[in-house]
Model the fold of this input.
Amino acid sequence: MRIATGCIGHETNTFSPVKTSIDNFKGGAYYIGEEIVAAFRQTSTITGGFIDSAEKLDMQLDPLLWTFATPSGTVEQTAYEILKAEFLDRLKRTGQIDGVLLDLHGAMVTEAIEDVEGDFIRAVREVVGPLPIVVTLDFHANITAEMAESADIIIGFDTYPHVDCYERGFEAAQLIFATIRGDIRPTMAYRQLPLLTSPPAQCTMKPLMSEVLKKLHALEVEAGVVTATLSMGFPFADIRDAGVSILVTTNGDEKLAEQCAAEFATYIWEMRDAFRVDLVSVEEAIQHANHSKGKPIVLAEGSDNPGGGGPCDGTTILRAFIEADVQDAVIAVIADAETVDSAISAGVGNRIELSVGGKTDRVHGDPVSLNGYVKTISDGTFVHKGPMGRGRVGNMGRTVVLKVGGVEVIVTEKRIQPYDAEVLRSVGIEPSDRKLIVLKSAVHFRADYTPIAHEILEVDTPGVHSPNLFSYDYQKLRHPIYPLDPTAEFR
Ligand SMILES: [Zn+2]
Done:
């Protein structure tokens, strides 16, 4: 049995002014053929799960192209066309195959296409005809009817932070195997809800969503049900289909699939009010820390989360910390290659006048002029040790730690979401020692930081990934949709 596999992946934040080009893919994660296996073998990733599952089942993988660009703004149409042509060309030349396993994200948008994955899966379908296509998607996929129609089975993550990527990849490979052998005949039902939720409310480590997932898992073991997916959607894409959707796959029982999907959708809809988030201002967070004996207090700055398209160079909190003379604090991270260059030229142990951050746009705060002490210089590489992507090598680019009063700022060359505590440890900072830790991450950091954090606060700063959905001017999103339109209905 031979299965073609690969990925063209991006989480597109259409509110970001930074366009995503072909260079962001080719200069990001970009692997061809056997390079894919070398990059993902023994990693807790989707494709890592494909590889192990295929080996166990004696299925041969035919890796074509795997590429993923760091989340950012709308993808240039030409970039997608180049990647799609490359993938399809390899698919056509691959010879005899029995199916296709796709490791996709589900929230990619180009200048011309709102539903890129729908377009891509359909294009793959046109090449392989009736062969099974099994697709994995992120928890933040904005799943469309087109995706559901073009794929035989879609499997989304069940966790946010995403700690089950490997398991979902493993499951997908098992299901394509069972489908090819004729052990199952997958029938998938799709429901979309008129509901938009923001990342902190989607976190499956919190009681609301952990209950929801328990119920989803109970559905998956019901007789006749093969797999079920709840996608909470990516709200920072102004497209018609952003938001929550449900997929239920049964073994050949269309009526059961439709019924289960409808029931689960109704269950989610009825709890729509619970998906609210409590945010604090930076000033409130500083005050709170001053009065708290415990440490560390983690401030999640989701609005500048590079994992969702934030520029990662926002300065709102840095400025407030300096003005308030905050002590024993670390900011992870500010991406600013110019500052890294200047600090490296100045050298470790020296002071330098700098203008830090705020260079991408005017939304996330202006550059901050400061006199910084160059404490550490690093090559910026580290190995993930937390539950997300354990074993994978992270690369922040050249990285420096600047000390400004009582604040240590980790300045990186590349945009990187600091969800793994190794980001701090790799530059000599033990997170459990600090009073205040600012993380440009909405939710993923909780996987590694929950055991060490005394407290976690969600901070309300302006940005393209703000948990406050009312701060966006949606133009293309379908209406009515809850909570933007409080009278939205679902039947
Ligand atoms: Zn995600």
The radius of gyration is 22 Å. The pocket of zinc ion is lined by residues 138-140, 162 (CB under 6 Å). The longest helix spans residues 165-181.
